[in-house]
Each structure stands twice: as C-alpha cells, then as structure tokens.
C-alpha cells in the first residue's frame, strides 16, 4: 500500500482486487494494521471463492446412443431426446456454487430420466454433496428417475 506503482496496478487488475485494497486501507486508517491484514485476507478469500464458484457450470449434453453403426432410426433418437436429458458438471461443486446448480437442476421438466455426468467435478464439499442430494430427491419426488455417472471415490 506504500508504492504508488503497486497501488495503480492493483486498482487496475480487477474490481475485486480494488475493493480489497480500498477496504484494507480504510481499516488500517480507522483501526490498526493487524485488524486491516485480517480483514484484507478475509476479503481476498471471499473474492477468490466467488471467482472459483463462477468457474463451474452445468451443461446439458446431447445423448448419444450405443449404436456402433450409427444407423439408429430418427424416431428412436427423437424418443430418447424427448424423455431423457443429460447434464455434465464441470468445475467445482462446493458451497459457493451449489445453490446455482440446485436451481438449474430442479427446473428440469417434461422428462422421465435425468442423467448427471459427474466425471469433470474438480472439487466437492459437504454442502455441494448435500445440495446435489437435495436436487436428486426433488427430481425423484416429481417422478423423474435420476442416474449418476462418473462419480469419483
């Protein structure tokens, strides 16, 4: 916070970094350096968690049949697409992002089967697992069968 060049670089880096800088500076002036360091670290953690949470997403993925010859009748593919939907999780599924995934999953309608492809989840905490379990329960309560694939030990 002492070098002008560093202040300019941090202020231009991202909005979150700028907010952390300004608030840490304000706490230093109003309270003391020890409190300011604690507040600055806590704010930086929050900013980092928001960034990590935003990096994960839930994508609907197309269904592919197991037909090796590729000559599946169009009617059969239409029925699959009409009654089955598959989602793939990418990135972390933890407390900061779990609620967003729950909302997306539970808005599924007009299908009989939901497939959750989990092989690309990079991190899963207890809250993420709880929210995932809640989403599965809500879907099953609506009569939708949920299949989970790619779960890592």
Report what the structure shows:
This protein has 6 helices and 4 strands; from the N terminus they run αααβαβαβαβ. It is of the alpha/beta class. β3, α6 (126-141) and β4 form a beta-alpha-beta unit. 55% of the residues lie in helices and 21% in strands. The mean pLDDT is 77.
- Radius of gyration (CA) equals 23 Å
Helix content: 40-55%
Going by helix content, strand content and strand pairing, the class is alpha/beta
Number of strands: 4
Order of strands across the biggest sheet?
1-2-3-4
Shape: elongated
Please give the largest β-sheet: 4 strands, mixed
Low-confidence stretches: none
**What's the end-to-end separation, in Å?**
45 Å
Q: What order do the helices and strands follow?
A: HHHEHEHEHE
Number of helices: 6
User: Roughly what fraction of the amino acids lie in strands?
Assistant: 15-25%
The overall pLDDT, averaged over residues, is 77
């Amino acid at each position: 916070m002492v070098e002008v060049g560093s202040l300019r670089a941090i202020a231009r880096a991202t909005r979150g970094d700028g907010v952390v800088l300004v608030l840490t500076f304000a706490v230093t002036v109003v309270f003391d350096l020890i409190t300011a360091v604690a507040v600055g670290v806590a704010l930086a953690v929050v900013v980092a968690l928001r960034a990590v949470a935003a990096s994960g997403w839930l994508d609907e993925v197309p269904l592919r049949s197991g037909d090796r010859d590729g000559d599946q009748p169009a009617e059969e593919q239409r029925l699959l697409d009409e009654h089955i939907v598959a989602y793939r999780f990418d990135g972390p599924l933890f407390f900061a992002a779990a609620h967003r995934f729950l909302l997306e999953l539970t808005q599924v309608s007009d299908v009989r089967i939901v497939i959750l492809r989990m092989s690309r989840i990079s991190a899963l905490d207890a809250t993420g697992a709880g929210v995932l379990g809640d989403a599965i329960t809500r879907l099953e309560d609506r009569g939708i069968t949920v299949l989970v694939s790619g779960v890592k030990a």
